[in-house]
Design brief:
single chain, 226 residues, 8 strands, globular
């Protein structure tokens, strides 16, 4: 068995969760202690604690768990949505997960079963973002509904609840959460004014192709990536 890295090796991950948690509040993606973040660090996962104000949260408050959810370090209780994060991290390529209670996304979940294609930015998630059926927070049913709705996408809107966005870095997952909220806000504004003109499946597919090409170019020109 590979030994866990020393606590010092996880410091950067814990600090990063504090930084992005506070930004999540400032950007209006959560209110109070709602929402949560996680980041893989070595063979462990750093997760935000339950019931701790993000403005006062310190790296020592961040909890480290293994892939089964067993606490490896930290005196706090991990987020009540730990099972949701573990399920997301089980998907290949996922390093970071952002769960928000962002208002436009929640409002959208009350009206449709899928985020309407109002803008090509939807392609960053693979072309579609579905709305998962509502289930109580922290429940196995919520995890099952989220995974089913997620499919091959990197984001899902949790019905009457919030969003879940996956990424290969915390910055990428967080950017996805903000972009998803923006897409929902655009649709809500357009819908309030009239009947929005939506992009076709073919137009979204072309945007997905272009996003993939752009990503390959970035990787090819960035040292240390493949």
């Amino acid at each position: 068995m590979t030994p866990h890295p020393s606590p010092a090796d996880h410091t950067a991950a814990r600090e990063s969760l504090c930084t992005w948690s506070r930004r999540m509040v400032r950007d209006g993606l959560v209110v109070g202690t709602s929402g949560n973040l996680s980041l893989r660090t070595g063979d462990l996962i750093a997760v935000t604690p339950s019931g701790v104000d993000y403005e006062t949260m310190t790296p020592s408050d961040v909890v480290l768990v293994d892939d089964a959810g067993t606490v490896a370090a930290g005196d706090r209780e991990p987020t009540s949505e730990l099972a949701l994060h573990l399920a997301a991290h089980a998907r290949p390529g996922t390093t970071a997960v952002v769960h928000t209670h962002s208002p436009a996304a929640v409002a959208t979940s009350l009206l449709v079963d899928e985020v309407p294609p109002v803008h090509y930015q939807l392609a960053m998630f693979g072309g579609s973002v579905r709305v998962a059926r509502y289930a109580p927070f922290g429940s196995d049913e919520l995890v099952a509904n989220a995974v089913a709705a997620l499919g091959d996408s990197t984001a899902v809107v949790l019905g009457n609840h919030g969003t879940l966005v996956l990424g290969d870095t915390l910055g990428a997952a967080y950017d996805g959460a903000r972009q998803l909220e923006w897409l929902c806000e655009v649709w809500l504004r357009a819908r309030a004014a009239g009947e929005p003109r939506l992009l076709s499946a073919a137009e979204i597919s072309e945007a997905v192709r272009r996003f993939a090409v752009q990503k390959r170019r970035v990787r090819a020109t960035t040292p240390g990536t493949r």
